[in-house]
Amino acid sequence: MELQNRHLSQMLPQRQKSMVIGLTGNSGAGKSTVAEIMKKNGAYILDCDKMAHENMQKGGSAYKKIVTEFGKDILHENGEIDRKKLGAIVFNDKNSLLTLNTVTHDIIKKQIINILAKAESRCTVIDAPLLEEAGLIPLCDEVWVVTAKLETRIRRITQRDGITKEAALLRFKNQKSDDALLKTATTVIKHDDDNLEKLEKEVIDLMKSRGIL
After folding, report:
1. Phi, psi of 190, deg, nearest 5
2. What are the pLDDT digits (tens) for 24-61?
């Protein structure tokens, strides 16, 4: 990660001593569960999905651009973006997803750089499904990738989101393969079973080994 650390120093010359970990993984792998464990053990979490949603709200930094790109049909009666309608568009069309990501990524990256420059916790986690695509890897000291078998991910997604297997597979189709994600990883966390106690121990051990717990 030497090259990435040089980029980090250039982008955040005045940053505090908080270690920055990029956390990523495909839908249903367990990334959010790992983030929650890290948060419980003192890490500060930057949830990029949550940041994207906030920026998409009426008055948010990405709102006008998204409405311009996708039209007023994606809006609720109160003018807020209907994320289900927007999701139905972007999860079924790669170009639409790329358009949405292009609008949101630059905004989120600038916000994260500002936050990292002032971070005081021992560890700051950038929780992002599209860590590389958003240009966030150069901000990270390490990249942790969470993986799980396809059948496990399908089961988790269908139960969590109340969607069909076919809808889950369509969603996965627009995501990176695990092999592509693993190329960015400095650490891999396999979460094939639902043993949360085992997962928590692994994450805590990783944090201790980095001196952030």
Report:
1. -95, 125
2. 999 999 999 999 999 999 999 999 999 999 999 999 99
Give the start-to-end residue ranges of the domains of the chain.
2-208
Distance CA 150, CA 159 (A): 14
Cα-based distances in Å from 27 to 7, 30, 43, 146, 157: 28, 8, 22, 10, 7
Render pLDDT for 170-200 as a digit per residue (tens, 0 to 9).
Answer: 888 878 888 999 999 999 999 998 899 999 9
CA-wise closest residue to 197 among 40, 68, 37? 37
Q: Residue 16 has what DSSP assignment?
A: -
Q: d(Cα 209, Cα 142) in Å, to the nearest integer?
A: 13
CATH 3.40.50.2000 fits 2-208, yes or no: no
Hey, how many other C-beta atoms are within 10 angstroms of the C-beta on 101? 16
